[in-house]
Write a structure and sequence with these properties.
- The complex is a heterotrimer of chains A (338), B (200) and C (635).
- By secondary structure, chain A is an alpha+beta fold.
- Helix content of chain A is 43%, strand content 18%.
- Chain A has helices at 2-20, 34-70, 80-114, 227-238, 247-258, 261-264, 298-306, 308-311, 324-336; strands spanning 123-130, 133-139, 147-150, 152-156, 161-167, 172-175, 183-185, 191-195, 201-207, 219-225, 288-289, 294-295.
- In chain A, the strands form three sheets. In chain A, strands 3-2-1-5-8 form a five-stranded mixed β-sheet, with no helix packed on it. A five-stranded mixed β-sheet of chain A has the order 4-10-9-6-7, with helices on one face. In chain A, strands 11-12 form a two-stranded antiparallel sheet.
- In chain A, α2 (34-70) runs antiparallel to α3, α5 (247-258) packs across α9 (324-336) and α7 crosses α9.
- Chain B is mostly helical and 200 residues long.
- Chain B has one domain (18-55, 64-199): Four Helix Bundle (Hemerythrin (Met), subunit A), CATH 1.20.120.
- Helices cover 72% and strands 4% of the residues of chain B.
- In chain B, α2 (65-89) packs antiparallel against α3, α3 (93-120) runs antiparallel to α4 and α4 packs antiparallel against α5 (167-196).
- In chain B, 40% of the residues are buried.
- Chain C is mostly helical and 635 residues long.
- Chain C has a single domain (20-360, 512-625), classed as Cytochrome c oxidase-like, subunit I domain (Cytochrome C Oxidase, Chain A, Up-down Bundle), CATH 1.20.210.
- The radius of gyration of chain C is 25 Å and the shape is globular.
- Chain C has helices at 15-26, 31-37, 41-70, 80-114, 123-145, 170-198, 211-242, 256-290, 297-310, 326-338, 340-356, 363-386, 388-394, 398-428, 434-460, 477-507, 545-548, 588-605, 609-625; strands at residues 537-538, 552-557, 565-569, 576-581.
- Chain C contains 19 helices and four strands.
- Chain C has a two-stranded antiparallel sheet with strand order 1-2.
- In chain C, β3 (565-569) and β4 form a beta hairpin.
- The chains are: A alpha+beta (338), B mainly alpha (200), C mainly alpha (635).
- Chains in contact: A-C, B-C.
- At the A-C interface, α1, α2, α3 and β9 of A face α4, α8, α10, α11 and α12 of C.
Chain lengths: 338, 200, 635
């Protein structure tokens, strides 16, 4: 009996011990946000209690089967005295079940209430989920403080950040497990999600509502940084794109503006104002391109531009035929947009 | 396995009416399915209404006349329907024939008026969600009208064949009458929903 | 073959002559005509079961393909398009073409036998139901072969499945396949409800109904109340796609979440449509192999009914992250948790039965033990996801994939396999192999847990569902590879099961009437049962008729042998009312199904198909119901 119970507890602890080994930067166990931390506490509580319940049931099952082996053939009908005693045990077990469930309901209710909710004064970011990337608009008190970016959310550590969630085409779901639970982005509806990182770091998230062909490649990164670093980042993001610093980059800009690129992408400070694709004003400063697909380097930009349909089949970026020189210069240009 | 005869059922009738008939229970079960369907569409109507800023969406209120006419005819038809069912129970073959002819007529007339109900909705199914849901409600009920009318016509025709004078047919007549009552009764909440909720 | 004279009573004939006369009256014709016109519930149910297991095997192949793709990061075994079709097919196939039909089919086979009647109520509707089910399954799989299979998930959320984003005919095929399977399921539900309420053996009052029959009755009511929601949902989806209605279009006053409400109002009860029959099987098996009646009969029945009612009050827990008001969410947390109470009652009663019984460890009982071990895990993770905050972390992740496979495989497929081992001798007249049975049990049990338990951890480690691949820098590679390899063990277990089943139909040991010494009426007739099930209608005066009077069955006489006759009895006390006729074979259900199929498939391409397609349907139905000059039409 005792050994089974011990095994049950060990089993309960198994997930966390296995996960301790994972440096999960997209893991509910590696909770670094206020919401994720309180949910994790709830999860640990429920997993432990449920494991004990399971172990008890299995212990009774084994004992019942073991007992039965010793018993002889069926007697003539169940004994009423034994039946009454069994009934009492069953009623007690049901009562215990009700109590455990009531505790879970109450704890879950209070955990929901305790989850932080950002107010209207807090930093607000509009997140637009679309096939298969994340459009971001940082809202400010005045229109000129607003700016567009994509796939990489920067937030200050220790402050509530309000995300306004909009589904542009189909339903998406924003999930950064290290910081908070998920919330859907639904066309025709407005949802909100509050993020609050307790420690600086990069937290990966991913769309978790099936959204079509490239649902698997719709990641985003939340970078939590100290207030000063964040303010500096925000200031630089508001700036228009840097002007080309050498001939190759200038040639790249020409390619970008003269080829179909500008029809879908915007680069503030140039004539490119397309809105179908991500804003590329500071694309070179983001860690990843194509919604978490590739780390941003000149090489990866070139690879992506030359053949987006092989790297992310079915995505909305067409293959634009460029010469080797054009490809080189345009990727140099984009990489320079820090 | 050895068997021991403990009862003799040779005296039992070989056909049962109403709750002693499996067909009656089957009809009831199908009515339960369809009532659930009607309730759901009405729930969808209320749900969409709840979301909309104004209701009806971009459309005038439906005209009352054709729908109300259908309601009156349906309610009136309940009387011969009840009588037909009673005659069937009494196995009065001549009256059953009369009742079935009458019910065939009273099934056709509301269907003819129904044709004027759709334009009286003043909205198309593809105009907006309001139009979609009222067309769905009306269409669903019309499908039931047609189904029961076909059933009535076939039964009425049967009554004028050799096979008509059979207690089993009389049971079918009763089940058909029960189903017609269902078609009439379910119309009332749908009528209220389509025509009167927008006027509240 | 003996001549059947008009109005011959069973009491006038000696047993061999009686059997011959009944066999002549209840005979299904041979040849193609017989195949198409059969209305014997056992023949239809056998077809249903075999077809459903064929779909299980196909769905398993799809699962293997997915595991092959997911074993490694950024694998290119399947294209994203094919993967999305495959996971959609896997879910749709397993839910609509395997799980629900197979459970209903077990009911179609067993319920008439267990209640002691000669055929199911509305046997022609039953035949129709099978053809429609087959057509729906064929539609889906032919579409898959043509690379036109739905790719929007088994839940087909709008707008992805809507007119704007769901290109081609893929989503229409999904929606119409739903219509097929729902018609089939609703038809069977009506038959079972009426069979249980009106065709029970004299004396089988409500408190003497076997628990499996209770579970099928309750399930059928859930089908009746839940399926209209998905019929309406899929129809309005088709209308949105085909004729431009706006039910789900937010730009024109429609709503995206309306789809989810409708889908889950059906979708959650769907789980219980699959699970409750399994619960009934568990009770039947435990009773027989623990050698005593199930403890707490009344509590078990109440738990079934409570589950079926609560099942309609918790659909919103599938929508905890859609941003619905928090107060509503708390209500649905409470209701979702509370369904664990009837589940607990049942588990405790089974444990009590085993505790006070003398268990015989044969394969069916092994599967039931495997059921308790795994289903309790699935139930407990179900309690976890009922909590809103917990759910926001695991919703749409592999944690949920693990959870519902524990519930559906652990909670339904294990009992089903146990049930197949248990009733196989009744259905085929031959026993399955104990050795292979134990072998398949252990492979399936171990393989299942090794495959699905790690998915809990994957989900918590951030792996979402329905992704066709993941990137090499995610820490999921090792566990995914482990899961993929483990799935081979699970497949091996199923292979052993299939081999055993196919082999045993030919070379299995011949089964006696009641090889397990079970207490219920299906074991009171030959294995396999004759076309008329019982030569004389059983009379019941207890819950375990075959245990109460070992070796002797009380029966009634006085039924005609020249007419397909069975007893209709009162709902509560099962007092005999009528010697009612049961319909003979008919080709019309087949033609009605063909006409319905043409109409439904036509409507994928043009709405007018509903108009011209309804004419042949009407003709077929008239042919179906038009009285024929048979003894059954006498009154």
């Amino acid at each position: 009996m005792r050994t089974r119970a011990t095994r049950g507890v060990l089993l309960a602890l198994l997930p966390s011990s296995v996960l301790a080994g994972c440096t999960g930067w997209q893991s509910a166990f590696d909770a670094q946000g206020a919401s994720a931390i309180s949910i994790k506490q709830l999860m640990v509580l429920m997993v432990v209690i449920c494991s004990v319940v399971w172990a008890l049931v299995i212990a009774v099952l084994i004992r019942a089967l073991w007992r039965g082996r010793e018993q002889v053939e069926r007697s003539i009908g169940p004994d009423p005295v034994i039946e009454r005693r069994t009934a009492r045990v069953v009623v007690a077990a049901v009562t215990a079940t009700v109590i455990v469930l009531a505790v879970f309901t109450v704890v879950s209710f209070f955990t929901t209430r305790a989850l932080t909710l950002a107010g209207h004064d807090d930093l607000t970011i509009k997140v637009r989920g679309q096939q298969w990337w994340w459009g971001l608009e940082y809202l400010g008190p005045t229109p000129d403080e607003r700016f567009e970016t994509a796939n990489e959310i920067h937030i200050p550590v220790g402050r509530n950040v309000r995300l306004q969630l909009e589904g542009i085409d189909v339903i998406h779901s924003l999930w950064v497990p290290g910081l908070a639970g998920k919330q859907d982005l639904i066309p025709g509806r407005r949802n909100e999600l509050t993020l609050r990182a307790e420690r600086p770091g990069a937290y990966r998230g991913q769309c978790s509502e099936f959204c079509g062909l490239q649902h698997a490649h719709m990641a985003l990164l939340v970078i939590a940084e100290q207030q000063e670093t964040f303010d500096q980042w925000m200031r630089s993001q508001r700036e228009r794109a840097t002007d080309p610093s050498d001939a190759e980059i200038a040639a790249g800009q020409q390619v970008f503006l003269s080829r179909p690129c500008a029809a879908c992408h915007a680069i503030r400070g140039t004539s490119a104002t397309g809105t179908n694709g991500p804003d590329l004003t500071h694309v070179g400063g983001r860690r990843y391109i194509a919604a978490g697909l590739l780390e941003t380097t000149r090489g990866s930009l070139a690879a992506w531009i030359s053949d987006p349909q092989t790297l992310k089949p079915g995505n909305n970026m067409p293959m634009v035929a460029l010469s080797a020189d054009e490809l080189r210069s345009v990727s140099a240009y984009l990489a320079s947009l820090k | 396995m050895k068997t021991r005869v403990v009862a003799d059922f040779s005296g039992l009738p070989i056909h049962g009416f109403r709750s002693a008939s499996v067909t009656w229970w089957g009809t009831l079960a199908f009515m339960l399915i369809e009532a659930t369907g009607f309730a759901l569409v009405i729930a969808v109507y209320l749900y969409l209404m709840n979301l909309a800023a104004i209701w009806p969406i971009d459309a005038p209120k439906p005209n009352l006349l054709p729908g109300t006419l259908v309601t009156v005819i349906l309610l009136v038809s309940a009387i011969p329907n009840y009588l037909t069912s009673r005659w069937a129970e009494r196995e009065d073959f001549r009256r059953i024939r009369i009742g079935m002819v009458l019910m065939s007529v009273l099934g056709t007339v509301p269907l003819a008026v129904r044709a004027f109900e759709f334009p009286a909705l003043n909205v198309n199914w593809d105009s907006n969600a309001y139009g979609s849901v009222v067309w769905a409600l009306l269409g669903l009920h019309t499908a039931h009208l047609i189904t029961d009318l076909v059933d009535t016509l076939v039964l009425a025709a049967l009554m004028f064949t050799r096979k008509g004078d059979n207690v089993r047919r009389f049971g079918d007549v009763q089940d058909n009458a029960m189903y017609w009552n269902f078609v009439v009764v379910t119309w009332l909440p749908i009528y209220g929903c389509i025509y009167w909720i927008p006027r509240l | 073959m003996s001549e059947v004279k008009p109005d011959t009573r069973d009491s006038e004939l000696a047993p061999p002559a009686l059997a011959a006369a009944l066999a002549e009256t209840w005979r299904t014709p041979v040849g193609l005509w017989g195949v198409l016109a059969a209305v014997d519930h056992k023949i239809i149910a056998r077809r249903y079961i075999v077809t459903a297991f064929a779909f299980l095997a196909l769905g398993g192949v799809l699962a293997l393909l997915m595991r092959l793709q997911l074993a490694q990061p950024e694998a290119r075994v399947l294209s994203p398009d094919r993967y999305n079709q495959i996971f959609t097919m896997h879910g749709t196939n397993m839910m609509f073409l395997f799980a629900v039909p197979v459970m209903e089919a077990m009911g179609v086979y067993l319920v008439p036998l267990m209640v002691g009647t000669r055929n199911i109520a509305f046997p022609r509707l039953n035949a129709f139901s099978y053809w429609i089910f087959l057509a729906g399954g064929a539609l889906l799989w032919i579409a898959f072969v043509l690379d036109m299979a739905p790719d929007v998930g088994w839940f087909a959320y709008v707008p992805l499945s809507g007119p704007q984003y769901g290109a081609g005919k893929r989503a229409d095929i999904w929606a119409q396949m739903i219509t097929f399977t729902e018609i089939a399921a609703l038809a069977v539900a009506v038959e079972i409800v009426v069979t249980v309420l009106k065709q029970r053996a004299p004396g089988m009052s409500l408190d003497r109904i076997p628990l499996f029959v209770w579970s099928m009755l309750v399930t059928s009511f859930v089908v009746i109340m839940a399926m209209p929601a998905i019929v309406f949902a899929s129809t309005s989806l088709i209308l949105d796609r085909l004729v431009g209605t706006h039910f789900f279009n937010p730009a024109e006053g429609g709503d995206v979440l309306l789809w989810q409400h409708l889908f889950w109002f059906f979708g959650h009860p769907e789980v219980y449509i699959i699970f409750l029959p399994a619960v009934g099987m568990v009770s039947a098996i435990i009773e027989t192999f623990a050698r005593r009646p199930v403890f707490g009969y009344l509590a078990m029945v109440m738990a079934l009914i409570a589950t079926s009612i609560l099942a309609f009050g918790l659909w919103v827990h599938h929508m905890f992250v859609t941003g619905l008001p928090r107060l509503g969410q708390s209500f649905f947390t409470a209701s979702s948790m509370s369904i664990a109470i009837p589940a607990g009652v049942q588990v405790f009663c089974w444990l009590a039965t085993l505790w006070d019984g003398a268990p015989v460890f044969r394969t069916p009982l092994l599967f039931v033990i495997g059921f308790i071990v795994t289903f309790v895990i699935g139930g407990l993770t179900g309690v976890m996801v009922a909590s809103v905050p917990f759910d926001t972390q695991v919703h749409d992740t592999y944690f949920v994939v693990a959870h519902f496979h524990y519930v559906l495989i652990g909670g339904a497929v294990f009992p089903l396999l146990g049930g197949i081992y248990y009733w196989f001798p009744k259905i085929t007249g031959r026993m399955m192999s104990e050795t292979l049975g134990k072998c398949s049990f252990w492979l399936i049990f171990v393989g299942f847990n090794l495959t699905f338990f790690p998915m809990h951890i994957l989900g918590l480690a951030g792996m979402p569902r329905r992704i066709y691949t993941y990137q090499p820098d995610m820490p999921w590679y090792g566990l995914n590879m482990f899961v993929s390899i483990s799935s081979l063990v699970l497949v091996a277990g199923f292979l052993v099961f299939f081999i055993d089943a196919i082999r045993s139909t030919r070379v299995g040991v011949s089964a006696a009437e009641n090889p397990w010494d079970a207490p219920t009426l299906e074991w009171a007739t030959a294995s396999p049962p004759p076309s008329y099930n019982f030569a004389e209608i059983p009379v019941v005066n207890g819950l375990s008729p075959l245990w109460d009077q070992p070796g002797c069955l009380m029966v009634a006489s006085g039924l005609r042998t020249d007419r397909r006759e069975l007893i209709v009895s009162t709902v509560a006390a099962a007092k005999p009312q009528v010697r009612e006729a049961s319909p003979r074979d008919s080709i019309w259900p087949f033609w009605a199904a063909v006409a319905t199929t043409v109409m439904l498939i036509g409507s994928i391409f043009t709405p007018w198909a509903v108009v011209w397609g309804s004419v042949p349907v009407a003709i077929a139905l008239i042919g179906w119901f038009w009285p024929k000059a048979t003894p059954e039409d006498e009154s």
